[in-house]
Amino acid sequence: DAKTTQPTSMDCAEGRAANLPCNHSTISGNEYVYWYRQIHSQGPQYIIHGLKNNETNEMASLIITEDRKSSTLILPHATLRDTAVYYCIVREVQGAQKLVFGQGTRLTINP
Amino acid sequence: SAVISQKPSRDICQRGTSLTIQCQVDSQVTMMFWYRQQPGQSLTLIATANQGSEATYESGFVIDKFPISRPNLTFSTLTVSNMSPEDSSIYLCSVRSTGELFFGEGSRLTVL
After folding, report:
1. Which of A37, A12, A7 shows the shortest CA–CA distance to A22?
2. Does the beta-carbon distance from B45 to A100 stay under 8 Å?
3. What are the residues of chain B with a beta carbon less than 8 Å away from any beta carbon of chain A?
4. What angle do CA A74, A76, A80 make, to 5 degrees?
5. B96-109 per-position pLDDT tens digit
6. Closest CA of chain A from B19, distance in Å
7. d(CA B103, CA A89)
């Protein structure tokens, strides 16, 4: 079973920051938080991951709360091409490398 | 990153037949995964395929229905056997490379 909870859908205006929340209250100390997205009819695309520190790359920023029970993915300047389903996943650092997907958040960027 | 090619990209099949989906990676990878995505649903892991050993299946998936081969570190196949309309899904291959998991574009299967 997925260990994360996300809103089913969200809307955001083009050019604004999109903030996607994720709850992972049962996360353990050896689990990363990963974010993937799936644009319609494509395979999932890796976005970012983190353990306990905030992370930023060319696609997004990941903010993890101090207790690690929740996180937020931030797309700083959303474009229409960011319309996709976004999946928040927790994954063990060691051991099984598989990803268990939840239902994700369907993000729609509006012009 | 790893570049993953899947064949076929889509197919329409008759019930009772079997279809083999191929996954080719442009680099050697230890771990490969097969997922299923039913219409309107999220991804569900079918099995983990490691070279030199039998695949490990997730709950609800069995080898007789979804036999997997992993002959080398760059290639794997998934067969969907004795298909029924309920098997209509996108089947995705995933690999672990440089610490991350990458996905192919999927094989969209429609069973009539």
Report:
1. A7
2. yes
3. 4, 31, 33, 35, 42-45, 48, 92, 94, 96, 100-106
4. 100
5. 877 788 999 999 99
6. 20
7. 15
